[in-house]
Amino acid sequence: MSVRTDPRVTRTTAALRRAVVELASQRPVSRITVAELAERAGVTRATFYNRYGTPLDPLVEALYADLESGHRLEERRRTEGSSGAELLRLATAEVADHVERFADVYRHALDDPADRGVYDALARHFDGYARTFLTRASGCRELPDVSHTVVAQFLAHGFAGAIRAWLADPSIGKDALVDATVACAPAWWATTAAADPTDAGP
Fold it and tell me: Are the CB atoms for 24 and 85 separated by under 8 Å?
């Protein structure tokens, strides 16, 4: 039996996410107070603290929610039979599109050392994504027999670093980011991306 979420909670969450994205697009999230965020969202500070500790928390939720929509699209493409190489490039482009949608938020975080939490959250998200990918591909013969924890962290921080480099240098276009990231991906990533581990053989 599914548990229904109170519509008021859903509305409050949406309002806080929307408000924090608006404010974090104007200045670093570390400089946003709970009082002004609550006012912008039309809720009380007590309501905010019932769910979150700092303004960074709803901001990370909003960013993750947008990234997850891209991953759902990737899963749909996988079931439609896209090749591993296509999935790799499309997934990378989806993340680039996400960063473009929230470019002001990421750029403010890039400029302020106090806002490393935004990029730490991005790396955590990519780490989780990589671990899920590695678990799903664990039966594929192309996947090297090495620590998934180390591999996931390596890929996550490399991808987050690539995004930082892209945003820091206006001369680097989105296509250049995608090209460079795909070129740096392990050779086994594309070969296992669309594989069905049940058909991998011994």
Answer: no
pTM above 0.90, yes or no: no
**Residue 83: alpha-carbon gap to chain centroid:** 22
Whether residue 33 sits in one domain with residue 60: no
Q: Give the residue from 3, 2, 29 showing the smallest Cα distance to 16.
A: 29
For 91-104, how does the pLDDT look when each residue is reduced to its tens digit (9 = 90+)?
A: 899 999 999 999 99
How many domains does the chain divide into?
A: 2
Q: At residue 90, what are phi and psi to the nearest 5 degrees?
A: -65, -40
Residue 186 lies in a domain: yes
CA–CA separation, 151 and 129 (whole Å): 12
- State both tokens at 154: 């390596």
Asked if residue 1 belongs to a domain, the reply is: no
